[in-house]
Amino acid sequence: MKQTRRGFLQWLLGLFPLLTGFFGQFRARGRTTAETPIAVEPSRSELTFLIFGDWGRGGEFHQRDVADQMGLAAAKRRCRFIVSVGDNFYEKGVQSASDPQWMSSFEDVYTASSLAVPWYAILGNHDYEGRPQAQLDYTKTHPNWKMPARYFSAAEPISDKEKVEFFFIDTSPFVEEYRDKKDMRDEVISQDTSAQVRWLDQALSNSTAAWKIVIGHHPIFSGGSEHGDQPELIRDINPLLEKHRVPAYFNGHDHDLQHIARGSVEYFNTGAGSKVREPVPTEGSRFYRGTPGFMAVTLTAKEMRVEVIDYTGASLYQTRIQNRAVAEA
Q: What is the mean pLDDT of residues 159-164?
């Protein structure tokens, strides 16, 4: 009898790992959290960050699902920082650094510990419909929110010898139709776009970084079904990207995920942080999808890897871009 009981207990203990694995798989099909994965130690010669935009909707339209998957991706890849390409709060930005939307659309949504890293952020057109200065003011009291000015640059090390420099630009003042929009007009016309163009030209010229990446809210080229190409940026910004051999431009505004290769620049649209629309192919389209999600970018001195991840955690697309400056050296 004792042998039978001992045998039953041994059989039950042997079954336990199988049951644990089964229920673990079952649980994984539901909503995940950012505390689940085991972090992978990154190489000392690479840098990874997440980039997305058009997100602030109180957690709705899959915003919270995207946030959960960002937490998982950031933990797994040991992401060093996040980049927001604008339209941080819908529909009309925020009014102050204590606006309730800072909690409902930001602090209460991106709660994973892996996302408690610096957030480099720029303004979008919906942010201009509120008080843009409020988002700059938030920087003073919340050290992870990095918006020191309406346009600025920031350098991050890739390795002991190499770095990437980001050039964050303020694109809304370039868009001529906003000058006739009541909620935006005064803020838009107060900005000197000629001065910004001169700054970008000089900053790109002075940079010694291995990678120079420009970040704006509006697309230059896009297959977005609502907005598409932005003529003012094609006229004023794109010539500088070509002149200074900028390898990549990241933007939002069109609520989708795209990769377009045109001329010498790779254009990445990552405006799918919440509500989305279906894009269409355009000249140079490599990938286009109207699903909520974000991009994970890994840089080495020689290569940039961009992965598109949706709100379920699925990897939709990956591409590799070689650093021309290193290859030609």
A: 95
Rounded-to-integer distance, Cα 188 and Cα 233, Å? 15
Place of tokens 């939307």: 101
pLDDT at 327 over 80: no
Spatial distance between the Cα atoms of 325 and 8, rounded to a whole number of angstroms: 67
Phi and psi of 265, rounded to 5°?
-115, 145
pLDDT at residue 127, as a whole number: 98
Alpha-carbon torsion (76, 87, 150, 249), positive or negative = positive
Strands of the 265-270 sheet, one edge to the other: 152-157, 163-168, 211-215, 248-251, 265-270, 257-262, 285-289
Quick check: 198 pLDDT over 60? yes
Q: What is the DSSP letter of 268?
A: E
Residue type, 107: E
* Listed residue (168, 143, 164) closest to 84, CA to CA: 168
Instruction: From residue 300, give the alpha-carbon distance in Å to each of 149, 169, 265.
Output: 28, 24, 18
Question: 62, 126, 218, 227: which is the annotated catalytic residue?
Answer: 227
Strand (E) or helix (H) holding 109: none
Taken as a whole, the chain contains a residue count of: 329
Distance CA 20, CA 13 (A): 11
- Cα 196 to Cα 189: distance, rounded to the nearest angstrom: 13
Establish whether 62 is a catalytic residue.
no
User: Which domains are seen in the chain, by residue range?
Assistant: 45-327 (3.60.21.10)
* Virtual torsion, Cα 299, 125, 73, 267, nearest 10 deg: -40
Q: Based on the number of CB atoms within 10 Å of its own CB, is 171 exposed (0-12), middle (13-18) or buried (19 or more)?
A: buried
Decide: 298 and 304 in contact? Cβ < 8 Å. Answer: yes
- pLDDT tens digits, 6-36: 454 454 444 433 343 333 332 232 333 333 3
**Residue in 288, 254, 229 with CA at minimum distance from that of residue 52:** 254
Average pLDDT for 313-328? 88
Cβ–Cβ < 8 Å for 84, 302: no
